[in-house]
Amino acid sequence: GTNFPDNLDFAYCKRVLGNILTGEYDNSPKGEEGVNLAINNISRAIKRGGIFCAVEKVSANFAPFFERRDLKFLFIYHIQRGEINNQGRSTSAIMVGQYLVYYYQKI
Questions:
Q1: Cα separation of 14 and 33, whole Å?
Q2: Which comes out higher in pLDDT, residue 27 or 72?
Q3: Would you say 26 and 64 are in contact if contact means Cβ atoms under 8 Å apart?
Q4: pLDDT digits (tens, 9 = 90+) for 34-87
Q5: How far apart are CA 49 and CA 11, in angstroms?
Q6: In this structure, is the dihedral angle defined by the CA atoms of residues 74, 66, 28 and 1, taken in order, positive or negative?
Q7: Given this model, what pLDDT does residue 85 score?
Q8: Which one, of 48, 47, 42, 44, lies nearest residue 102 by Cα?
Q9: Which of 11, 51, 77, 87 lies at a C-alpha separation of 20 to 30 Å from 5?
Q10: Do 8 and 47 contact (CB within 8 A), yes or no?
């Protein structure tokens, strides 16, 4: 969407970009076009010096998408945590998700 607030200090999204990339939930646009549009819209809502943080599964690298915008790389963390199932957060080693946490600053 384009109805984001203006002048945000911090924008956070979790597992949004991956779903757009793969076309989950029958969203349109999808794929790379959809990811670029989402990042552009979120970036426009962040004020200069503000932070954009995204948490995504490691199955895709979103760094090149961020770097096409007016966003400066700060750091990327690799984290792992138990996935949530019908009994809560799993502690099983089999159910551990691998994620990348992207931090970029609006320039």
A1: 19
A2: 72
A3: no
A4: 999 999 999 999 999 999 999 999 989 999 999 998 999 999 999 988 777 777
A5: 12
A6: positive
A7: 72
A8: 42
A9: 77
A10: yes
Residue 22's SS3 state is helix
Stated pTM of the model:
0.84
Close Cβ partners of 13 (under 8 Å, ≥ 6 residues apart) = 42, 53, 54, 55
List the helix and strand counts (H, then E) for the chain: 3, 6
Q: Which of 100, 101, 39 is nearest to 70 (CA)?
A: 39
9 forms beta bridges with none
Report whether 67 contacts 73 (CB < 8 A).
Answer: yes
